[in-house]
Every structure is written in structure tokens, then in C-alpha cells.
Specification:
Structural class: alpha/beta
Oligomer: single chain
GO biological process, one term: Mo-molybdopterin cofactor biosynthetic process
CATH topology of one domain: Cytidine Deaminase, domain 2
Main location: cytoplasm
CATH class of one domain: Alpha Beta
Order of helices and strands: EEEEHEEHHHEEHEHEHEE
InterPro entries: Cytidine_deaminase-like, FdhD
Radius of gyration: 19 Å
Keywords: Cytoplasm, Molybdenum cofactor biosynthesis
CATH architecture of one domain: 3-Layer(aba) Sandwich
Subcellular location: Cytoplasm
Strand order of the largest sheet: 8-7-9-10-11-12
Largest sheet: 6 strands, mixed
Strand content: 25-35%
Number of helices: 7
Helix content: 25-40%
Shape: globular
Length: 262
């Protein structure tokens, strides 16, 4: 399937206008079924759909390893990803649609963070033997941002890269920033890549949910071209994750746990 399509638009430059051909990114609805039950619809870029499905199932806590999947079939024509688990007792009602409890409020963040960490069985990041050099951060961000031909054509794609302290291991792109990370996670599971000594670069802003998604897999460093939110910073601090934002040229902000930057 094509990731982009061509269309005619009326382009204005001050008061001058002309009809030109432009590229736009494709948004594809992927319906995810687990054991015959419809779980969700993911609006995504139509590539690496198997990786996206696996990454999403990992994020939701439905699987912890590929061994739990009996079969996974992608039907591109009907827009369906059909997963059969070895566990025939799957009940989608056991998996909440939101992470934060309904009573969450700004004044009790630390209390709710502790609840989430305990209830979701998230281990605090204790790997302080993972380091990355400042210059390498700038280089790897350029590699991540330069990868996406789709972004260059349309301006509508997000990129996520899995790296070690020296090089890019894998890059995924998608119209949705969370999908890009899910594809990256799914690909890592398929290739059996160890994640607890890796680093994830993203082109998008970093939300609380993004930190939750990445940190629960044990990844110690998250680096973004864009801004983190206040909740993402506080949650990263609670989890002992190094969070870096606004990597632009040779500038960046280290928001939490700077001991991993050398």
C-alpha cells in the first residue's frame, strides 16, 4: 500500500494563487481483533502493520512476549489485523482504555504515580550503566529526522528510532506519534532485541503516556526533538528515566537524570 498520495491544491503566495500537485500522507484504519473480538481501530500509515499490532498489544499489557501469540494475520484489503492468542480466555474488558485512574488530580500526582507503578507492575529503571555522549545525541537525532522521506514529502509523519550509545538500530514512521513508537516496539519484539540498554529517539512531543509506554519496557533514556509535558517530566523522574527534549542542532534540555549523559 502507498504511504502517500498526490492531489491538486490551490496554493497561495500572498495574493497570487496557482494550482499545483502536492503529496499528502495516507491515513489507514486498521481494525485490531483479538480472539475474534474487536479491540480497537488504529489510524495509521499503512506499513509495518504486523509490528504496529504487536507493539500495541505490548503497550496494552495484553502480551509480554511473542510466544503468547498463536497467529497474526494482516488483511490489507479489509483493513484488519486478526490476532489469535494461545490464551483462549482473553477478555478485553480487563484492559482499561485509559492509564490514569478516574480520580487523578493535579495535587496528588506522586500518589497516583505510585499507584500506576504498582498496579501496572512497572519496574523502576535501575540501569545507570547506560550512557550516551552529548555529540552522539546530536548526530543520532539528525539520523532519525533525516530518515523519513514521507515527512520530507508531506510534513505529516512522525519518526521513532531505537538506538544504542553509538548507532541507530531501527527506525519507524507513522502519521501518529504513538503508532511510530508501537511499530518500533513491535519490531524489537520480532527481532528479539534487548531493550533495557537502549535509547529511543522521537520527533514528537513527549506526553505522560509516551513515557509510560517506553519506560515499562525498561528503556532508560528517551530523547525528543520537541517538548515534554510537565506530567511526562515528573513521571520520568519517578521512574528514574533520563528525559531529554528540544534537541535542535547542538542544543538540548535534559529534564531528568542527567547522570547518563557524558
Amino acid at each position: 500500500m502507498e504511504k502517500t498520495m498526490e492531489l491538486h491544491v490551490v496554493k497561495y503566495d500572498k495574493e497570487c494563487k496557482k494550482t499545483v500537485e502536492e503529496s499528502t500522507i495516507c491515513e489507514y484504519p486498521l481494525n485490531v481483533f483479538v480472539n475474534g473480538e474487536h479491540l480497537t481501530v488504529l489510524l495509521c500509515t499503512p506499513e509495518k502493520l504486523k509490528e504496529l499490532t504487536i507493539g500495541f498489544l505490548v503497550f496494552k499489557g495484553i502480551i509480554k512476549s511473542l510466544d503468547e501469540i498463536k497467529s497474526l494475520e494482516i488483511d490489507e484489503k479489509s483493513g484488519a489485523s486478526r490476532v489469535t492468542l494461545k490464551n483462549s480466555q482473553f477478555n478485553k474488558e480487563l484492559y482499561p482504555k485509559q492509564i490514569l485512574p478516574t480520580a487523578f488530580n493535579e495535587n496528588e500526582k506522586s500518589k497516583f504515580f505510585s499507584y500506576i507503578i504498582d498496579s501496572m507492575k512497572i519496574s523502576l529503571i535501575n540501569n545507570d550503566n547506560v550512557y550516551i555522549h552529548v555529540d552522539k545525541i546530536y548526530d543520532l537525532m539528525i539520523d532519525n529526522l533525516g530518515y523519513s522521506k514521507t515527512f520530507k514529502l508531506t510534513g505529516g509523519a512522525h519518526c521513532a528510532a531505537l538506538c544504542d550509545e553509538d548507532k541507530v538500530i531501527s527506525i519507524c514512521e507513522d502519521v501518529a506519534r504513538h503508532n511510530a513508537v508501537d511499530k518500533l516496539i513491535g519490531e524489537a519484539f520480532i527481532k528479539n532485541i534487548y531493550l533495557k540498554d537502549k535509547i529511543i529517539f522521537v520527533s514528537s512531543r513527549v506526553s505522560f503516556q509516551m513515557v509510560y509506554k517506553i519506560a515499562r519496557l525498561g528503556v532508560p533514556i528517551i530523547i525528543s526533538k520537541s517538548a515534554p509535558t510537565n506530567l511526562s517530566i515528573e513521571f520520568a523522574k519517578a521512574l528514574n528515566v533520563t528525559l531529554i527534549g528540544f534537541v535542535r542542532g547542538e542544543r538540548m534540555n535534559v529534564y531528568t537524570n542527567p547522570q547518563r549523559i557524558i
